[in-house]
Amino acid sequence: MALSPSAALWFLPFVLPICLYVCYTDMSRMKITNRAVMVLIMVFAIVGPLVLPFDTYLWRYAHLGVALLAGILLNAAGAMGAGDAKFIAAAAPFVNLGDLPFLMILFSITLIVAFVTHRVVRASPLRQLAPNWASWTSGKRFPMGLALGGTLGLYLTFGALQGL
Fold first, then answer.
1. Which of 128, 42, 147, 24 is nearest to 93 (CA)?
2. Which of 21, 5, 22 lies closest to 99, judged by CA?
3. Which residues 6+ apart lie within 8 Å of 15 measured at CB?
4. What's this model's pTM, rounded to 2 decimal places?
5. Model confidence pLDDT, tens digit, residues 45-89
6. What residues have CB less than 8 Å from 7, skipping those under 6 apart?
7. DSSP three-state, residue 152
8. DSSP structural state of residue 127
């Protein structure tokens, strides 16, 4: 991985709770909150200059801009929700471009596992552990925050573990 293990280790304790919150709110309310997105951006803004070379830190904001533009276009085309697009943009600065192929594979695996798990639980008695979650009755819609939050959390965890 191209991600610095020390940067991943510094980001992880701040980012992981946000990722878990995104998973929870998207499953329970089918919504990724603006607050979660803004806090994720603030974590990068505060921790980023402390753990990344300054020029790298500044260039990572280009990742945010490109991801946001792509997300806006995909949202306008009906291919993704606005919350998903905003979360992807906020998560983009944490990703080293050299890790993009790895990240796409990680996202693909996480998406498949999250989708199958969600659908199995939705159809099982386990659903009664959280009976009022909106994602259980959302028809064909899937809480993509489950896969997106999971992917960012796993990416930073793998990055941190590579340094051990």
1. 42
2. 5
3. 40, 43, 94, 152, 153, 156
4. 0.96
5. 999 999 999 999 999 999 999 999 999 999 999 999 999 999 999
6. 51, 52, 159
7. helix
8. G
Tokens matching residue 150? 């999971």
The one-character DSSP state at 123 is T
**Token code pair at residue 148:** 């997106």
CA distance 104 to 122: 26
State both tokens at 73.
Answer: 């276009």
Residue 34 class from Cβ within 10 Å (0-12 exposed, 13-18 middle, 19+ buried)?
Answer: exposed
What does the pLDDT read at residue 163?
Answer: 75
- Tokens representing 13 are 């304790």
- Which strand (E) or helix (H) includes residue 103? helix 100-122
Contact 162, 14 (CB under 8 A): no
> What is the distance between the alpha carbons of residues 70 and 56, in angstroms, rounded to a whole number?
21
Q: Are 160 and 43 in contact (CB under 8 A)?
A: no
